Amino acid sequence: MLNHWFHRQRVQYAFYKTKDNVNPRLAKNLAKIKKFDEEPALFAGYIKSGNTWLRFLIFNYFNIKACNATETLTYQELNKIQHESLGDPIEPSGPQPGFPYLARTHRHYSSVFDRFTKGIHIYRNPLDTLVSAYHFNKNQPESKQNSFVNVNHFVKNNLIYWELHTRSYLNQGHLLHVRYEDSQKDPIGELKKVIEYLGYTFEPKIAVKSIELSSFKSIKEMGREKNQKYGNGGPQYGAEFTRKGIIGSFHQELERSTIRFGFKTMNAFGYKSLLK
Fold first, then answer.
1. What's the pTM?
2. What total number of domains does the chain contain?
3. Whole-number Å distance between alpha carbons of 148 and 195
4. Is Transferase one of the keywords (predicted)?
5. Is the model's pLDDT at 182 over the cut of 80?
6. Whole domain around residue 82: which residue ranges?
7. Domain membership flag for residue 15
8. What is the crossing angle of helices 51-67 and 216-225, to 10°?
9. What was the pLDDT predicted at 140?
10. Residue 2 lies in a domain
């Protein structure tokens, strides 16, 4: 436990010392965005927080509205409409007709993002998030893997990173904060908030269809049928990108000692009800 305390102190010190440092690639892509007439809304979340699912929900909604779509977008189509991430080696494509213009990042909030007048932040309880991140990490090519003995070690080590990342966004009052758990329990209500926040008229019938097309079952089937199971993990990813998305599934994967380790954080961020 003492080792974890020292780890937390080191991580927090490094975070606050460097949090406003700008990644050169991120800065370059932000500069490129300035050439477009329309200003994007920021779209942010810690890795494996439901980011991709919410993107499908939003962009399937507008694809149904614009094209009367009857099938979900594929991963490749989604990433053509809204480029993958500000930190990736990509060429920002700019706004696409008929769709909202979003700029996505997994990076913590810092002053470099103050330029965005609007932003959507999705967050999910830390134990489910980090379990999912562990599985994503272990299925990466060996050169990209972080060396953690098991999921319990991974969760304990990364909990502080989740805390700092999530709090950096929750401290920003101008953003729309979407709890993954709320979006699963009331997808219509949460999608309505997102659509109206972005400045569009909400149409319930389209929303119902988007929710159907964006279900985990639908997206998994699309990935298998279109040979895109790797999703946003890239062709080199060694597993199916879309896993379960089940609330509270950490109970089946973590030791009780790890869950107790995360109790304070879960309670502080409003997730006490998920602890048994």
1. 0.91
2. 1
3. 39
4. yes
5. yes
6. 26-274
7. no
8. 80
9. 66
10. no
CB-facing half-sphere around the CA of 234: CA atoms within 13 A? 8
CA distance linking residue 65 with residue 203, whole number of Å = 9
Task: Put residue 137 in one of left, alpha, beta given phi > 0 → left and psi -120 to 50 → alpha.
Answer: alpha
Q: Which residues contact 47 (CB under 8 A, 6 or more apart)?
A: 106, 129, 133, 136
Question: Is-contact 89 137, C-beta < 8 A?
Answer: no
11 assigned to some structural domain: no
Calpha distance 274→251 (Å, rounded)? 9
Summarize pLDDT for 106-155 with one digit per residue, the tens. Answer: 999 999 999 999 999 999 999 999 999 998 887 666 645 565 679 999 99
Assess if residue 3 is contained within a domain. no
pLDDT in tens, 227-249: 775 555 555 544 555 567 789 99
Question: Residue 229 has which token pair?
Answer: 């199971």
Mean pLDDT value across residues 32-43:
89
Nearest of 130, 137, 258, 16 to residue 8 by alpha carbon: 16
List, as one string, the DSSP characters of the chain.
-HHHHHHHHHHHHHHHHHTT---HHHHHHHHHHTTSSSPPEEEE--TTSSHHHHHHHHHHHHHHHHH---SPPPHHHHHHHS-S-TTSS-------TTS--EEEE-SPP-GGGGG-S-EEEEE--HHHHHHHHHHHHHTS-GGG----SSHHHHHHHHHHHHHHHHHHHHT-TTSEEEEHHHHHH-HHHHHHHHHHHTT----HHHHHHHHHHTSHHHHHHHHHHTT-TTGGG-TT--S-S-----TTGGGGTS-HHHHHHTHHHHHHTT-GGG--
